[in-house]
Structures are given as structure tokens and as C-alpha cells.
Amino acid sequence: MASEITYGHTGPVLKLEDVAIAYKVRGGEIEAVQNVSFEINRGESHGIVGESGCGKSTVAWAIVNFLGANGYVKRGSVKFLGQELVGKRGEDLRRLRGDQIAMVYQDPMQALNPSMRLGDQLKEVLTVHRGLSNAEAEKRAIEMLERVYMPDAANVMKRFPHQISGGQQQRVVIAMALLNNPALLIMDEPTTALDVTVEAAVLDLIAELRREFDTAIMYITHNLGVVARVCTKVGVMYAGEMVERGTVEQIFKHPQHPYTQGLMRCVPKLGADKASSMLYPIRGRVPPPNSRPIGCIFGPRCDYARERCRLERPQPRIMSNGVEVRCHFAEEIDPAQWQPHEDIELPTVHEVAPGEPLLKIEHLKKYYEVSGTTLKDLLGLTPKRYVKAVEDATFTVRQGRTLGVVGESGCGKSTLIKTIIGLENSTDGKAEFMGFDITGDISSRDLAVIKELQMVFQNPDSTMNPSYTVGQQIARPMLRFKTVPKKQVRQEVIKLLQAMRLGENYMDRLPRQLSGGEKQRVGIARALASHPNLVLCDEPVSALDVSVQAAILNLLLDLQSKLGTTMVFIAHDLSVVRFFSDDVAVMYLGQIMEIGPADAIYAPPYHPYTEALLSAVPIPDPTAEQKHIRLEGSVPSALDPPSGCRFHTRCPRRHLAPEEGAVCATQIPPWQEIGNGHKIFCHIPQEILRTFEPVISIKEKDESHVS
Amino acid sequence: MLVKDIMTRHPIMAASDTPVTEVQSIMSQNGIRHLPVVGDGKRLQGLITRQRLALKADELGSLNVWEITRHISQLRAGQIMLKRAQVITVTPNRTVERAAALLTDYKISGLPVVEEEIVVGIITETDLLRAFQIMLGLPMSGVRVTVRMPNRKGEFNKLSSVIAQNGWGVTGMGSFPTPRNPGKYDLVLKIPDVSVDEVQEALSSIPDQTIVDIRAAV
Amino acid sequence: MTVAQPVLAASRPPSRLRKLWNSISIVFQSRIGTAGLVVVAFWVIIAFVSLFWTPYPPNSSLFVQNLPHNSTNWLGTDHLGRDELSRLMQGTQVILLKTRLPGENRIAIPGGVAIWGVLGSLLLGSVLGLNAGYRGGWWDQVIMQVLDALIAFPVIVLYLVIIAALGQGDLVVIFAITITGAPGVARLVRGLTLDIKTRDYIRAAETRGESKAFIMYREILPNARGPLLVDAMLRVGYAIFAIGTLGFLGLGLPPPDPDWGNMVNEARRNIFINQWAVIFPSLAIASLVIGLNLFADGLREEITRYQK
Ligand SMILES: Nc1ncnc2c1ncn2[C@@H]1O[C@H](COP(=O)(O)OP(=O)(O)OP(=O)(O)O)[C@@H](O)[C@H]1O
Ligand code: SF4
Ligand code: SF4
Ligand SMILES: [Mg+2]
């Protein structure tokens, strides 16, 4: 390939050299970041990836002087547009950065004033800093909103932040950041809180704006797929150091640092399943800043560590393919020869033949009544209004199988689970579990049924009661359901803890002495303590780092194959669901749109919504070719969902349905049987659905370039 | 090709209260010869060039060594810069050749690019020279051929149809009135993925046109 | 997302006392808190000492009336010639250490009036707050309406009404403190409950089919411990203040045992002859209340920092 042509000056916009950043804490100091060097040029987007707490945000804060009272740059130099930032203070810094650095955070509300109209906030940037007239500023602001593909921009100007969706808020923040045409845009997990479809649109936008405005972008994320989609270069951080840095193509194709290789082995590929592939968690865990080894910082967890690694901290070296790696033995390491270390235990998964139907749900509905706030509403004069959170769910889960449920936030996944477990009672329909009726809530259920239905929660920080020890919390279900005689409870708890790969010494720990992954393990132990038949998992791994996530998924798989537990598994990560589940249901706005065996869902024929979801998933492989389907607008309100097919307002394939899609708006679609339990809820005839191309194809890039 | 396509966006800039000592180090460390001075949301206030940094003898004549040091350390960018009214600028939508004309007309080497007084970039001789290189296909390998043709309609058509017939591409092109030979034009082409002989053979058959130079070049 | 934490060595299950100490000892991290604790500890020690020893019998008139401080009576004497210091020392007992039951035989139970009163308001307030917060709906409406109505009365008026209705006595004062303190505690607990009940561990308890009472008292309440502890410290301060005020109005703890508020009230009549008899008990009240406040401040500061 010919070298890329660049016009204009190519000196870096941002250049960090050997930067160390420390926080002063009681009784000393922690060096959160050590010896980090990198540079970003104009029009380049540089990704920073790494697990939680490895110092990604700290680097960003150091650049914008946002470290708080106790943080400071201890060593090294940070040059922005050729000028040193370290050692300058207050007014000088402000002048240097001027309007030239903008930052976008994970939570858009951090940058928006909730009590001010969006238009006023956007205009303020121009009128205050640039002295533009109000009319002129208004015009510019609207132009910029249109630039970031905000539908109905003029109208959005008049709204308050809470009146638009999260994805739109993030777009407004990006628009606001771009109004000043900054030289450097720092984005700290800007799409982490967004749904895949919205995320995809925002990522497209970022990639496009980078090219158009020649802005240098520093993009912080923990998601390898996102990096592959928007970044040109990427640096991998581990425990405060940058261990590998290079172009996205090189890093993903030939990761050379053992940590980068480990990370890649932790995430399931989209399309991989548990029977044919394996996740390999990285053993051990990230050392806290003050007990990092003297030698290689990754040494204690590295499968290739040798004597030299213990004694000497490796320095970054540039490899033959231009990638900078911090490892003594990078040349010698061949990931193809890699064997899992004997310390990591891998699950044994064997295909289970579908057993008896355990959970049978038919036409289940859950409506929430919304109470109005006007006096009329209070007096009951207005007709009652309902949020239709789950509308007509029908499915069966067989003994020993796992049903995955996917869909965007607010589509009713969690409500479905809450109704099954009995935190809510259902509005209509049938639900049967082991032959018992479970349409009512917990208070109407028998203890014997309650015991068989348990749940694993999403947030590791709130899954355990901070006031009780691990042992007490695991023992509680045993005592409550009297599954174990009182005297044996302690032994049983220890047995469970060991099954969770936690030692007996965890018995008396309090939750705050545990890491996120450990808390999640205890949460699983608590759910399994009563030997339930069905375990409902609501996003059990989505708040965890990838290596911990891999370990927890392995643990669940292992337990499942040992105990024969049946599971319903909610997650928003489509690769994880594919990997973990036997069957998958896709939900949109309270309605199941497609259900069937996992492999059938992820291959054509697709439901149009599933197709859109799949083409939005960021894939950690820059060479993968993905169909470009983006949904317009946002999910309609569940208060009055669209008539006919609920997806018709956004469906990109609607024109293929009979009468050019007119039926979609009026008639409820039929369930089309594709075979083998695969069903699609759509008007488009099967024969046409079958002609859809697969969403993802992995191709080698061809190298022609001539005009 | 417009100015906005080849200018350097997000140029290094200074404020009018930046000390001159710092201005000096910024310019030498980053190897730049033009430093726009901005204030008030990147509004152009002036320009500092290398000459502006030179000390003016008449101002210093009456000062002794210590006073000179003090004088220099107290100087600010705003005092030495060329004031806005004297700075020649260009807007991002001008053509590159116009920008080049400004440089030669005023015998200067760089132009701040402003849009409603806001500095959005800078364009210098270097940028224009780089554009010139790229225009003639410098970074790509191929056969570089100069064809001399009479200045009349239809001549270019002859040439381009030969290229089209052979299914060749063109990665660089430029046309210049032949020096000291009025009525003729020299057309420079860069053709990739072919050999010198193929080109020689195909183009020499065109009536009224001669190949004045041909070489394989990178 | 979570950050890796150091692996702690295996530990014994912490005893209850140890836990309480752990939560209190973090106060030493704060200078203000430590200062407060020193003041409070000073008065607690004085109270214990006074149980066994005071310079002179506090209730007998052994000296010349209205003496200023001198070498025999370090803080002087009052209008009946009783030793100020002895009375001041003894005055701590009713607040912090003992409550006299009504009846002729002068039985006292351990724990001062202020302490019992605050415990009472914590108990009542927590029960109300938990039910209002966790059950919501009508429970919440009714409980909060009633408590709001109570809060609408000026505290002192409430005291007067209660004492007017029930007569004087230690138990009545405890009751009054309980009633006036409970609404505040209930609000605090309700707020905490509303927050805590959204946590997943409460969902987990619900999916086990635990009773409402179990969830409220075993799952939620322990997690409100920190803020409640802080609030309790402040409330002990208010209670002491209230007792002082009541004593000053002549409605406080019944004689003959000395009570700081009462001491101020009696000495007030001779303020032009002997201002010291007013100043010392006032200082005592002020210092204990301020000490408790500082302590509570330090505790709060550290607890919130600790939780982050
Ligand atoms: N204000 C602070 N005081 C003390 N330590 C801090 C402070 N902020 C962060 N740290 C520590 O610095 C280290 C790096 O934190 P940082 O927030 O930069 O990580 P991160 O990579 O952005 O993680 P995440 O993915 O969770 O956002 C962590 O060990 C963290 O506990
Ligand atoms: S230096 Fe040694 S321990 Fe560190 S990553 Fe390389 S091989 Fe592993
Ligand atoms: S029924 Fe119509 S609107 Fe709904 S998914 Fe099918 S084509 Fe799209
Ligand atoms: Mg972060």
C-alpha cells in the first residue's frame, strides 16, 4: 500500500513523555500512572484501553488539569501543540489550552446543565467566548446539531436535557465540544452507557468528525470492539503503565505483549459458542498501585515470566512492525503456541439434550399503571394509562438449557425476569414453572417454588449487604429454606465457596474487602445455596472487566454442567449472549421479535431488528466487514407503542413487507416458523428473509489504490 | 484544491501576553516560522515571524547589558507582533493558487487562515510546496513523462484517449507553458504500474506531440 | 466498575463491640472529631468519678453562700452554700448515667435521661421511618403526615404540653425527648431506606421470600448504622440542651439532685451577687453540647469519606 498522504503540518497535537501521575493519600502517595508516553497527531484517534483502575482516566484528567486537589503530575512532560503543560499553573494553563481541548465524559449529564435549555447552553459557548451575536450563535448551534445528525435540530434547541434520550444528550455534548473547533478532543468512555444501536451511530459520528475537523482524539474505553471501530492507533494500559502501543491493525492482528494477548482471549468472538470455543481468563488480578512488583508489572500474571522479568522492569521497545512493546521477550513469544496455565480452571461443557420443559410462558403481559400528576388524574377522572413493559411473551425453557434474552435498554428484559421471579405480578397470560402457576408475585407463592427460582444480579457493588460477612449471606438461604441442617450449614457454605474458587478464608470477610469479581462470585453462591432449579441472571457480567467477566462466565458454565441448572440469561452484549446461551430471544419494546436456537438467530434469515442489532455490535477485529445498518430515531415510548408491528417506525426493511410495508403499521405480524424452533415475528415472507446476507464477514483487505 | 484542503488545522498559537522568551522557544522547538497571536476565542490579533524576534538596534542603543536583559524578559508577544491590520490573511475557501499568489506578491512565506477573524489554520510555503509535490505524483512510483504539445483545442483529448485506450491511471499531472517557447505547453503526467517502454511506444504515436522527458520515478 | 483491593489476611469474625469501636475509631482521623471526643470523654469520666467521689456532699449546705471560686470551693458556692464543683459533677449523672424511677424508694436505672431519650427517639423513629420508606404507599403517607404535624409544633411547646399533661419526672423527660426526636430520626431513616431499598441485596432478600420485617430490620437497618450514629450524637447534644432549658424553666428533672439547667435557673436570681454560679453550669452545658457536635461532625466526615 502506498504511504498515506498527509497535507499540512504533521507535528503532534499532544505528546506525553514518561509521564507519572500520583495521588496524595493519607499515609503516602500512590503512583496511579507511571512512565506513559504517547503522541496524537491531527486527525488521528488514539485509543487507550485497559481494565478498570489501570489509570486511563487519570491520564485524561492530567491533560485537562482535573486531577483534583490531591493529584499531580510527578514526572515527565505533557506537550500540547508544542507547549509544555507540566509546571504551569492556573491562568497560564488556561491560556495555553484556551478553547482548544474539549472533554466528553461517559455521562452526558456531567456536561449539561439540567436547568437550562440546550439551545442556550450551546449558544453560550459562542456568545461568551467568541462574542458572536445571539442570532448568529443560534444559527451556528443549529448547524452543528445538524452536523451531528440530531433529528429536528431547531426543536431540540428549545428543550431541556432531560427531554431527550441519552444518545441524543451525548450528541449534544459532542456538538458543544466541537463548536470551538478544538485541536484535541478527549473522550472518556463516551458510549459505555449507551445501547449498541445508539453507540454505533455515535461511533460513526466520531470517526467522521475526526476526519472532517482534523481533530486529534484521545479515546478511552475498556471495549476492544469500540477501539477497532473508531481508532487508528491504540495504547494498552495495565496497572498504570502503557504496555503496548501501535496501529490498530497491528495490535489486533499480532498482539505481542502477553497482557494484550490475554485480553483478546478473554472476549468471546461474535458467533463463537461455548461448545466450540473457550474463554481464557487472565489468572490473578491487577496489583494495587502500592504493591506493584519491582520487575515486570505483569510478571505475577504472565505465563512467560522468567527470572529476568522478576528483577528488571522492561522498557518500551519498538518492534519490527512499528509497535512499541514493554516486554523483555516480545520477539520470542508466539501466541499460537500458548497453552493455558494450569492455575486457570476451564469449564467442561457438554451439550445437554433438551430435557423436560421447566418454564412455560404463554402470552405473558406486564403493564405498569402510570399515575398522572394533575388533580384530575389524582381524582381518577382521566382514563388509566399503562406502560406496556412486556407485551405477549411466549417461550419455553427446557431443563438444563440456557435462554439468552437480548434487546436495547428499556425493551422489557428486566421486567420479564422480575415477573418470572415474582418481584412483580403479571398482568395477563400464563406462566408455569415445574407445573406450578407463577403468575402472581412472591407473596402468593409456595416456599418450595421460591426456593427453586433464584437470581444473580448485575451490580457487584450492591449485590451484597455491606453489613454481613460472606458466610452469613450465603448461609441465609440455606437457613431460610432449611435445605441444610443447621449444624452442617458452615460446611456447606465452605463447599460452595470452594466451588466458586474462593477459599474458606472468605467466610468472615465483609463485602468491602472483596473485589468486584469476588462479590459477583459470592452473589452466585448465594443464588445457588438453595439448589435452585432455575437461575435468572440479569446482566451478571456487564459491570465487570473482561478478564473477570471471562472467569465468571466460565464459572457459571462449569456450575451449570455440574449441577444441571437451567438459566435465563440477560445481557446487552450480543457476543456474550451468543457464547453463553443455547437459545436466544430478541426483544424490542416489550415484544419478543425472534426466538430460536442461538446459532440460528445469529445467521440469516434474520428478523430485521436482529439484523440491525448485529450490524451495530462493535467487533474487536478491524478487518471484519460489517453491514452498515443504522436505526433512525430512538425507541418509542412504551406508554403508547406503535400499532401493528412495534418496530415499524424504525424498521429498515419495511419496504420488503407486503404492500410496500403498509401492513406493518396496521396489522400485527405473524409468527413465522423457520424450523427447529426458530420463529420470526415479521410480515416479510420467509423466502425474502432468507435472502439476507450475513451481517459480518471477515475478509482480508485488498490492497489496490490506483485512481 | 482549496486552502482548507491543504492548510494545517489547529496551528500552534500564542496569546498577546505570552512572554517573548517563551515565544522564541515555542518557535524554535517546533520548527515553525509563523506564530499567530490570538485572543478572545482564537480571534486573530497579530502574527509573529522570525524577523519580528530580531532585536532592533535603535531601541536598545541607549541601554546597558543589564537593562537589555530586563527589557527582553519583560517583552510580550503583543509588543513585538505584526498588528492585525498589517497581517495578510486568506480564507479557507480561496484556491491554492490564489494563496500562492499572495505569498509571492507580498514576498512573505505564510498566511494565517481566518474565518470571520477566527484562526482556523495556517498555510505556508511548505504546505504549498508539498501540495505541488503531491500534485505531480511524487509519493507514488510510476513513469513520469513530459509531453510537449501545441496550445490548441483537442490536443489534450488526443493524449487522454491514448491513456484511456491502454487502461492506464494517472496519479499526478501538471501543465506548464513551455519556457522560452511560446505557443507550446509541457504536460507532466505520472502513470503507475507501467514500464517506460510501454509509455514511450503509446505516446510517441500521437501526431504533433513529442515526449521531451521520460523516466521511471518514485 | 471496581478497583482491585489488597487481599486481606484471614480474620476472625469481628465481634459486635469491635465493630462499634471500628466505626468510632475512624474519628481519630479527623482533628475536629478528636477534639470533640476528648471533651465528651472528659465529661463521661467526671460522671463516673462523681458516682464515688465528689469534693463535698453536693446537696448539703456546708459553706457560706454565694462565694466566688477560692481554694476550698474551687468553683465557689451557690445561694444555699452548697459546693458548685460537687453539684456540677453530680449534675452529669442524671444526664449521662442514671435515670431515677418514680416512687419513694429512689431506685435508679443505669443510663442517663439524655441517653434514654435519644435511644427512645432512635427506636421509635427507626421503626416509623423504615415502615414509611420500605412499605411506601399509604403507610408512607400516613406516617409522614403525622410526623410532619408533630414537627410543625415548636419543640419547646411540645415539651411543655407533655410535661403539663404527665407531670414532672425523669421518665416524663425521657418521653418528651423521645417524642420530639422521633420525627427527625424517622425522616432520616426513611430517606436512607428509600435509597437502600433499591439495592440488589434487597431484591435478593425479596426473591427469597423474606418477610417485610426481616428485610426492614435485618437487611436495611444495619446499613443505616453510620448516619444514625452521627445523628444520635447530635441528638444527645440537643437533649442535654433541652434538659437544660427545661431545668431553667423549672420544669426539668425533679430536685434534689442537681441538674445543670436548674442550677443556672436558681443562680440567675443572684446573678448580680455571684455571676460565677450562672457561668459554670452554662459553660458545662455548652462544652458538652459542642463536644458532641464536633464529635458527630468528625464522625460524619470520616464515615462519608470511608464509604467512597
Ligand atoms: N482522587 C483519587 N485519589 C486517590 N486515588 C485515586 C484517585 N482517583 C483515582 N485513584 C486511583 O488511581 C488509579 C487509576 O484510576 P483511574 O480512574 O485513572 O482508572 P481507569 O483506568 O480510568 O478506570 P475505569 O475503567 O474504572 O474508569 C486507581 O487505583 C484509583 O483507585
Ligand atoms: S517482561 Fe516477562 S513477565 Fe513481563 S510480559 Fe514480558 S515475558 Fe511476561
Ligand atoms: S413486520 Fe414490518 S416493520 Fe415489523 S419487522 Fe417486519 S418488515 Fe419491519
Ligand atoms: Mg475511568
Please report the number of helical segments of chain C.
12
Name the largest protein-protein interface in this structure.
A-C, 55 and 27 residues
- Supply the CATH class of the largest domain in chain C: Mainly Alpha
Query: How would you sum up the major sheet of chain A?
Result: 8 strands, mixed
Give helix % range of chain A.
Answer: 25-40%
Average predicted confidence as pLDDT of chain A: 88
Envelope shape of chain C: elongated
Largest beta sheet: strand ordering of chain A: 6-7-8-3-9-10-12-11
Topology of chain C as a string of helices (H) and strands (E): HHHEEHHHHHHHHH
Question: How large is the share of residues in beta strands of chain A?
Answer: 15-25%
CATH superfamily of the largest domain in chain C: MetI-like
Q: Which term fits the overall shape of chain A?
A: globular
Q: Which small compounds were modeled alongside the protein?
A: adenosine-5'-triphosphate, iron/sulfur cluster, magnesium ion
> Would you identify the regions of chain A where 5 or more consecutive residues have pLDDT less than 50?
701-707
The rounded distance between the terminal residues' Cα atoms of chain A is: 13 Å
As residue ranges, the low-confidence spans of chain C are 1-11
**Count of extended strands of chain C:** 2
How much is the radius of gyration of chain A in Å? 27 Å
Structural class of chain C: mainly alpha
What does this structure look like?
The complex is a heterotrimer of chains A (707), B (218) and C (308). In chain A, strand 21 (583-588) and strand 22 form a beta hairpin. Chain A has 707 residues and is of the alpha/beta class. Chain A contains 23 helices and 26 strands. Chain B is 36% helix and 29% strand. Chain B contains ten helices and eleven strands. Chain C has two domains: 38-96 and 258-308, no CATH class; 110-256, MetI-like (MetI-like fold, Orthogonal Bundle), CATH 1.10.3720. Chain C is 67% helix and 2% strand. Chain C has a two-stranded antiparallel sheet with strand order 1-2. The two termini of chain C are 13 Å apart. The model of chain C is unreliable at 1-11 (pLDDT under 50). Chain A binds chain C through residues 26, 52-53, 222, 285-288, 291, 421-423, 442-443, 445, 447, 450, 453-455, 457-469, 471, 473, 476-477, 480-481, 505, 508-509, 513-517, 519, 523, 526-527, 530, 543-545, and chain C through 1-6, 8, 10-14, 29, 199-201, 203-204, 206-210, 219, 222-223, 225. The structure holds adenosine-5'-triphosphate, iron/sulfur cluster (2 copies) and magnesium ion (MG). Adenosine-5'-triphosphate binds at residues 23, 25, 30, 32, 50, 52-58, 68, 70-71, 222, 289 of chain A.
